[in-house]
Structures are given as C-alpha cells and as structure tokens.
Design goal:
This is Adhesion G-protein coupled receptor D1. With 840 residues, the protein is of the alpha+beta class. It folds into 3 domains: 214 residues, Jelly Rolls; 264 residues, Sandwich (Chondroitinase Ac, Chain A, domain 3); 251 residues, Rhodopsin 7-helix transmembrane proteins (Rhopdopsin 7-helix transmembrane proteins), CATH 1.20.1070. 37% of the residues lie in helices and 21% in strands. Helix 10 runs antiparallel to helix 11 and helix 11 packs antiparallel against helix 12. The longest helix has 36 residues.
Length: 840
C-alpha cells in the first residue's frame, strides 16, 4: 500500500491525525514525488492553500493533460458541522482547483471534474463522510469516465459526463478550504493526506493504499528507506469496534441543525457498521444512543416542515430498521439466549437472540405489556437454529405519517377515493424475525400474526371521523420496502375487529404495521342529487316570481295606511334580500370555481344571505315588540332595524374578507371554504338568528294559545284553536326557522330532512307571497279598496261616492281621499299599549 503511495506525483500529509498513517521524509513535513514542479504549502488569511505555481499544463489545472493514463486524487475527509467562521490550517468546506471540485452541500458529497478540451463536466455524488475520517478517492480516464471510491470501495461513477461551458476558478491554484464569508454559516470540513497520481489507480491499488493508510499493512522490502510509516505516539486503538461509533453519535447530536444532512449521515452510519460481535451491554448502549439520536432529529425546529415529505419519514424508518437488523444479527448470545429491552424518546424496543424451543408460552408477544402489540403463535417458529427477533413500538412516528396519497399506496380500497388522503391513526409497530416464522398464506388459515393497535388520533382526525356527514375507513397497513422505497400496502392483512378506539388485524407476514384512516364525505346517489337539484331550481324559480309579485303588491298598495306601516316595510326588505340572494345563487352555478368572478359572487352571496337572515331577525324582534313587550316608538326603532338588516351583515363580510380573502370561491364552489373554517362567518350568525327567532316563535305561540283558550272558554268557539296553527304557518317563512331542517340535513343518512329543507328553503319566497299577500286579509281589503278607487277614478272625476276604507276612518283620513302622511313609518299602530295580533 505504501509502495502505491510512494509512486504518487504529489503528496501533502498536512496534519498528524490519530489513526491515519502517513509517509514522511527526513527533510521536512511535505513529501513531493516531483519536487521540481514547485508545489509548496502556504498559510494565507487563516486558510491553507496548496499552490502549484506557474505550471498550467498539469493534471491539477487540466485533468485531460494526463490522458490516456488518467489521473487520481485521494484524501481523507470529515465534516465538522456548521461553524460561524473558517477554522485555520487544513480545515474548510471544499477542495477546489481549475480542473476539479470536491465539496459537501445539502446533505450529500460531490466530485466534479472538468476537461477544457471538449468542454465536458463529469460529476458524481455520494453520502458525505460525517464527523469521522473517511477516505475519498476518485479516478478519471476519458474512456472510463469518473469513478469515486469511498473507504477503498467503488461508490459511484459518471462514465460519460455532459457538455458544460461554465466551470472553474480563474486561476490554477489548488485550494483546500477557500475563503468564506465570515458573516455566514457553512458546513466546515477537515482534510488530510492529499495525494495526486498522474495515472488512474487500479481497484487493487486503491484497496492496498486504503488498507495501509488505516494501519493494516506490511512494509515491503522494496520501500525506499527515505520513507517510513509513523503511527502517532499517542494513538490508542479502540478495544471495541462499536465504541467510536457510539462516541461519534453522542457528540454529533449536539451539532444537529438540518434534518436532511443528519438523516444522510445516519444512513451512512447504518450502512458502515462493522461486522463484529456485540455484547449485550454494547448492543443496549448502541441501540439507546442511535434511537435517542433519531428522536432528537424529530425535535429539530425544521423537522415539521421536512416531515411533510413522506419519503423523508419513510427513509428514517428504513434507517432504523437497518441498524436494528444489524444489532440483532451481531448480538453475541453465547451458549444461552440473549435479549435487550428498553425504551427511549423514539421508541420502545426489544432485541432477542434465542432458540425457538426456549419459548415457553403459546405465542411470542411484543411488547409484553400494553394495549398495542404483535403476537406470533409458537407453532410458527419451526426453525431449530438461532432466531433473532427485533421489536419496535414508535412513540411519535404516527404524527408524521399523514397526507398519504392513495394513488401511491397498494391499498385498492383507498384508491377508490383518490382525492381523500390517508393518515396514521395508531402507533407504528414493527416486528422482524430471522429466519422468518412459517405462517399461513391464506387469511382464513393458521397460524397468522395478530396485530392489535390502540388508536392515537389527533383532535382533527377524531372530529372528522366522528362527524356524521363523513365515513371513516380503517385499513390494516404495512410498509413494503421491496421496491426500494417504502410503500403502504394492505396485501396479506385483514381487519377482523375494532372501532374508533382500537383495531385488531390478522396478517400473513411481519414488518412495520399501522392503522391508516381515510375520511370520506358521504355522498348521495345520482338519483337523489338530480331530484334535490331539480327541487332547488324549480323552487327558486317559483320563489323569484312570487317575491317579485310581493314587492310589486306592496309598492302598489303603499298609499294605503295599513300597508304603509313598519310591518310591511320589514316584509319588503326581507323579500328583496331573499330575491337577490336566490338570483345570485342560480347565477353562481354557471361560474368556474377558483376564478375571480366566482370569488366576487361568493362575497355577494355571503352578504345577501346574511342580510336575509338579518331581516328575519328584524321580523322576530318586531313581532316580539308587538305581541310580547311593547316598547319604544316606531321612529326610534326603524333606524335600528335598517342597521341590523343591512349594516350588521356588511360588517361581518368586511371582517371576513379582510382575514380570509382566499377562502371565497374555492376549488369546489362559489361559496365560503369549509375546510379553512371560513364558512363559520355565515353559519355562526345564521344559527344564532335561528335560535333567537325560534325562542320568539315559542313565546308568541304561547300568547296566541292562551288567547285561543280564553276565547274557547268564554264563547265556546273551537275554531279559535285554528289561530295558533295559522300563526305558526304564517311566521315560519319570515322567521327562517325552516333552516333547522338544514342543520338536520347535514347528516346525509337523514335523507328525508334534505328533501324537507330543499322544499321549504327554495319555496321561502312562495310562502311569503302566499301568507302575506294572497291570504292576508289586510292586503286583500286594501287591494279591493284600491281597485274601486282606480275604477271610479278612470270612469268619473267624482270621488264622493267612494266608500271609505275602514283603516282610513280609524286613522282620521277624510272619506274618499288618500292619506296625506308622507312618512313610510305609520305611527298609528302603537297609539295604545296593547297586544296587536294583526301582526300574525
């Protein structure tokens, strides 16, 4: 191995590093294979620079100069974590020359080589070394391309390269740790044993040098006497191969910042664990340290954002599986069984190495206690050899297993609802047995694995699952890594019992298990959708016509005093609000959700439907003041009525638009978003008004019932009881209490309430016209009177023979003349403090 090193073209030992063996001459610290080329070491501004001098035609500045023999670059490298300023001497973030670049960024190491003659870039990436020394060597030949070796083994390559015209530094100096901006943070690194061969080493030569550099060597007799291996005087080789790894993990935890970089480092550690026996004590320590390290990754502030990428979470789980599998296979059981059991912030764990015949119970269970566990029947352990069993019950991993796309799973049932994502509803539990137990491949056979998991739902999950308008599907799922990446599947598993609190599964295999939940809103059949849609269109169309007729009728009869009072002005405002709201509703069906016109339409719908409810509240308040408690004058009340009817909804809409503009005109319809919760800007005021009006309706109904009962006792007239039923029928449309059926209709199983709500709500305008125009005795009398006036006026100029309208006499209007009162609010109706049942 040192013969290979002695043949190098350029060699910089740099510092003395424990565990890395180097060559030295008797004249200085730097060994140069070709001293005449003038390469020297210089300290400048706290950064180590390896200057090549004025010679441009070399492999350093142009690797193609060494073709066809090629070129080799070799060095030891480790990363130190993020530092706030450059560290002097051989430390820096990258190695740069005019012909190649080596660096670490974004959780990966990279080698990039540039040939100017054909303007090609050759690039390869690999796992960065982490905080312990790693040997990195790369070779290049034009015919073979770029090859990168890590710790003596081929890691990656780029055989062809790509055309690139932008590369390189403006000079040919080789720089280890180029100057950094001291105000910024960057990933600091350390380099040692930098070597250049002006030829491509063979794989055998690379392996021989790496073996010699780390201390496993045999000094050849042909080695020049001027070179000798000098192990550092204070070097102490560890007595256990796993001890340095535990120390590195413990120390590295303190510098964690980027989850991506940390996971890449841990993955690198998991793949390079030594193939050495593990005592129970060392296995327990390594397991605890590694799981604690993983647990601290989950506590990083940036983990919440990173965890949205399911691939990152599944990669973490796979890394844990790899480490635990290595620990179980390396566990030294001696002559009897060995087992380690413990718990960390990451997971509860158990690793056992035993002979199946030593299992005394009818099954093997992990964990031994608790409501979430996996059981394997004893008869499934048919091997007579040593068997390793690894169990893991993750404490928090389920919190990050959400937003799972059904299309990216192997769960056919979930794919039927591809627009509704899955999420973990239980702990993640894993059990691995090697050699695998012999299980039935038929879910109706035996033996089978039993998996019982207690559900761990978030508040959002539980509220969605318990919502009567949703349907929650639970799947016994496991992670399938057979394709190289974790994919959720339910093949070979069946849910046998459970509810929203727990689930019991039977499976034909072992791996990582969890209960996945998919919440799907209940949908009506096409027939019911068409029927309800038809009722809405027909009912709204009829209502529009009736509301127009109502407004025209009130306008025509506005000169008659009985139609000119507060009650009919409130009716008119309510009719107008409902009319505009229903017109906008029908028009909105033609807009495309998510567009600007749809957003504007959603805002208008919000305002006018709220206004309709506000005027329903005014109807209730006015009714209360007339029947239950007479208070104030009409002049003082009409300002409040208009403020409530038109001002209050405007205020709510302004606040809602200010804080939730993006929630209007969503991707579903031209209305307020339900998922963001903005719909409560309509639902909360509407429900409050319904509750208030329902209370007023009950109070008014009691008064009318009492009067009806008194009339029956005095006059014996049973028809008096009809007044109560009539009053309820008249008041329902204007008080909005029919929307109670809308609340009941939220449950799609209560189909009858959906039909009742569709009929009553879409025909609200029809009922207003029916009860407050056609069947209203005051309106009919006023219309007859007005008709006579119009008839006599058109046939004769004399009005003295017109029979006066009774209300005109009551209000002091001269017979045959129109009332001269110009105020729209009639002050006569409250001239006495009495119960005015004309309102109903």
């Amino acid at each position: 191995g040192f013969e290979v090193l002695a043949s190098a073209s350029h060699y910089w030992p740099l510092e003395n590093v424990d565990g890395i063996h180097e060559l030295q001459d008797t004249h200085g610290d730097i060994v140069e294979g070709k001293v005449s080329k003038g390469i020297y070491l210089k300290e400048e501004k706290g950064v180590t620079l390896l200057y090549y001098g004025r010679y441009k035609a070399s492999c350093i500045s142009s690797p193609a100069q060494c073709d066809p023999d090629g070129v080799t670059f070799s060095f030891f490298w480790k990363t130190q974590g993020e530092q706030s300023r450059p560290t002097p001497f051989a430390y820096g973030g990258q190695v740069i020359s005019d012909g190649f670049r080596v660096g670490s960024s974004g959780g990966k190491g990279s080698v990039e080589l540039y040939t100017r003659e054909d303007a090609r870039t050759w690039e390869a990436t690999f796992s960065p070394p982490g905080p312990y020394w790693t040997h990195v060597l790369f070779t290049w030949k034009s015919k073979e391309g770029l090859k990168v070796y890590v710790n003596g083994t081929l890691s990656t390559s780029d055989p062809s390269g790509k055309v690139s015209h932008a590369y390189g530094e403006p000079n040919v100096n080789l720089v280890i740790g180029s100057e950094q901006d001291q105000t910024k943070r960057y990933e600091d690194g350390a380099f040692d044993e930098f070597i250049i061969w002006e030829r491509a080493l063979t794989p055998d030569e690379i392996s021989m040098y790496f073996t010699a550099a780390i201390g496993k060597h045999a000094l050849s007799s042909s080695t020049p006497p001027s070179f000798f291996m000098t192990p550092p005087a204070n070097t102490v080789m560890p007595t256990n191969a796993y001890h340095p790894i535990i120390i590195n993990l413990t120390e590295t935890r303190k510098t964690f910042q980027s989850p991506g970089t940390v996971l890449s480092y841990l993955r690198n550690v998991s793949l390079k664990l030594p193939n050495k026996p593990l005592s129970q004590e060392m296995a327990l320590n390594l397991t605890k340290v590694f799981l604690k390290t993983m647990g601290e990754v989950l506590q990083l502030p940036s983990w919440v954002d990173v965890s949205e990428d399911n691939a990152m979470v599944l990669g973490l789980i796979e890394t844990v599986d790899t480490v635990m599998g290595h620990i179980s296979s390396s566990l030294d059981a001696g002559k009897s069984q060995a087992a380690i059991i413990g718990s960390s912030s990451m997971a509860e764990f158990s690793v056992a190495k035993l002979l199946p015949e030593t299992i005394n119970s009818s099954h093997y269970r992990f964990p031994a206690q608790g409501q979430s566990y996996i059981e394997v029947p004893h008869e499934a352990f048919r091997s007579q050899a040593w068997t390793t069993i690894v169990g893991l019950l993750y404490h928090r991993m389920h919190d990050y297993l959400d937003n799972i796309q059904p299309a990216k799973t192997k769960i056919p049932e979930a794919a039927n609802y591809k627009n509704h994502k899955l999420s973990a509803a239980s702990y993640l539990i894993a059990l691995e047995v090697s050699p695998p137990p012999v299980l039935s491949q038929n879910l109706s056979g035996s033996p089978l694995v039993t998996v019982q998991l207690r559900h761990r739902m978030s508040y959002r999950q539980r509220s969605e699952a318990t919502n009567s308008s949703n349907q929650a599907f639970l799947y016994c799922a496991f992670l399938d890594f057979s394709s190289g990446e974790g994919v959720w599947s339910n093949q070979g598993c069946v849910l046998t019992e459970g509810n929203l609190s727990y689930s019991v599964c039977r499976c034909t295999h072992l791996t990582n298990f969890a209960i996945l939940m998919q919440v799907v809103p209940m949908e009506l059949t096409r027939g019911h959708k068409v029927a309800l849609s038809s009722i809405t269109y027909i009912g709204c169309s009829v209502s529009l016509v009736c509301l127009v007729l109502t407004l025209v009728t009130f306008a025509m009869l506005s000169s008659v005093s009985t139609i000119r009072n507060q009650r009919y002005h409130i009716h008119a405002n309510l009719s107008f609000a409902v009319l505009v709201a229903q017109i906008l509703l029908l028009v909105s069906f033609g807009f495309t959700p998510g567009t600007v016109p749809c957003r504007v339409m959603a805002m208008l719908l919000h305002y006018f439907f709220l206004s309709a409810f506000a005027w329903m509240l005014v109807e209730g308040l006015h009714l209360y003041s007339m029947v239950i408690k007479v208070f104030g004058s009409e002049d003082s009340k009409h300002r409040y009525y208009y403020g409530i009817g038109w001002g209050f909804p405007l205020l709510i809409c302004i606040i809602s638009v200010s804080f939730a503009m993006d929630s209007y005109g969503t991707s579903v319809n031209c209305w307020l978003s339900i998922s963001s919760g903005a719909v409560w800007a309509f639902v909360a005021p509407a429900l409050s008004i319904i509750v208030v009006n329902a209370g007023i309706l009950i109070a008014v109904t009691r008064v009318i019932s009492q009067i009806s009962a008194d009339n029956y006792k005095i006059h014996g007239d049973p028809s008096a009881f009809k007044l109560t039923a009539k009053a309820v029928a008249v008041l329902l449309p204007i008080l909005g209490t029919s929307w109670v059926f809308g609340v009941l209709a939220l449950n799609s199983q209560a189909l009858v309430f959906q039909y009742i709500f569709a009929v009553l709500n879409s025909l609200q305008g029809f009922f207003i016209f029916l009860f407050h125009c056609l069947l209203n005795s005051e309106v009919r009398a006023a219309f007859k009177h007005k008709t006579k006036v119009w008839t006599l006026t058109s046939s004769s100029a004399r009005n003295t023979n017109v029979k006066p309208f009774s209300s005109d006499i009551m209000n002091g209007t001269r017979p045959g003349t129109v009332s001269t009162k110009l105020s729209p609010w009639d002050k006569s109706s409250h001239s006495a403090h009495r119960v005015d049942l004309s309102t109903v």
